[in-house]
Design brief:
CATH architecture of the largest domain: 3-Layer(aba) Sandwich
Order of helices and strands: EHEEEHEHEHEHEEHHEEEEEEH
Structural class: alpha/beta
Number of strands: 15
Shape: elongated
Largest sheet: 7 strands, mixed
Strand order of the largest sheet: 5-2-1-6-7-8-9
CATH class of the largest domain: Alpha Beta
CATH topology of the largest domain: Rossmann fold
Helix content: 25-40%
CATH superfamily of the largest domain: Formyl transferase, N-terminal domain
Number of domains: 2
Strand content: 25-35%
């Protein structure tokens, strides 16, 4: 059976395992479309996206249009004439020609159990929402936002302490494996599209800077879900004496609270207990602005915090 000619479209780390899996499986990847190189990091040094780095290592043709809707790129797309487009964390809205033009259509790897968590930040929003399970969906793309027919899904439980970074990497690998299964079924004609129930759809918009701020009056379990959902990036934060502190890991201790929200109650060998809504939050790993991420006991040696001090929800943005 002739291999379909695949055009891969992806940008971030999430897309890397899928591209690697396609090549390892001997699939015919005729080109890789990714975002242009952008300034990154504190120094704002121009750097290639992760998918470009891998594509170069695999000696694949690379295309980096500023917009895929431009006439120049659409001409390139027509010349490539792929049988199938595979999309994973690409970062641009595709025009109808890319979605419907290929003989086998356009499919996307989405890290949620659609129709839940449609949008740009499904993994983060899943954790922030306190979900106990998630998964990966292979979907046929349409012009909507993650609203196309479901082709395959795989569910997985979320670990009680699993962070965004950990879940992101696990779902990226799950998505790569599920993609290969979907492609085999697509060629065999056994892949049966299933329309989404749009009534059950929930949204996962991008995470704003303001949304990362810890509100200590919130339920302690919600605060820890926020911290897990934003660790290691963009990271939940609070303020102490006007200085920003990022929080990477923490634990919730539900119970009765006598102190005002944000009040430091005390410390153990590995945590700093802070009063919150309906319980306490025990901070485990933090980062003072301008410093490195460290365990809380190391942080306290260099920056002593005494009971009664208050972490502030407010401060500069």
């Amino acid at each position: 059976m002739t291999q379909p000619r695949i055009l891969f479209m992806g940008t971030s780390d999430f897309a890397v395992p899928a591209l690697q899996a396609l090549v390892r499986a001997g699939r015919s990847v005729i080109g890789v479309v990714t975002q242009p190189d952008r300034p990154r990091g504190r120094g704002r040094v121009t750097a290639p996206p992760p998918v470009k780095v891998i594509a170069e290592n695999l000696s694949l043709p690379i295309f980096q249009p500023e917009k895929v809707r431009t006439p120049d790129f659409l001409d390139t797309f027509r010349t490539l004439a792929p049988d199938l487009v595979v999309v994973a964390a690409f970062g641009q809205i595709l025009p109808g020609e890319l979605i419907h033009g290929p003989r086998l259509g356009c499919i996307n790897i989405h890290p949620s159990l659609l129709p839940k968590y449609r949008g740009a930040a499904p993994i983060q929003r899943t954790l922030i929402g306190g979900e106990e399970a998630t998964g990966v969906t292979i979907m046929r793309m349409d012009e909507g936002v993650d609203s196309g027919d479901i082709l395959l899904q795989e569910e997985t439980p979320i670990g009680p302490e699993e962070t965004f970074g950990e879940l992101h990497d696990r779902l990226a690998n799950m998505g790569a494996d599920l993609l290969l299964i979907a492609l085999a079924m697509l060629q065999a004609g056994t892949l049966l599209p299933r329309p989404q129930d749009h009534r059950l759809a929930t949204l996962a918009p991008r995470i704003s800077r303001e949304a990362c701020r810890i509100r200590w009056e919130a339920d302690c379990r919600e605060i820890v879900s926020l911290i897990r959902g934003l660790s290691p990036v963009p990271c939940a934060y609070t303020f102490l004496d006007g200085k920003q502190i990022k929080v990477f890991t923490a634990a919730a201790e539900p119970g009765t609270v006598a102190e005002a929200p944000g009040t430091v109650v005390g410390e153990t060998a590995a945590t700093l207990r802070v009063a919150a809504g309906k319980g306490y939050v025990s901070l485990k790993e933090v980062q003072l602005e301008g410093k490195k991420r460290i365990a809380i006991n190391d942080f306290l040696r260099g920056c002593p915090v005494i009971p009664g001090q208050v972490f502030e929800s407010g401060g500069r943005i």
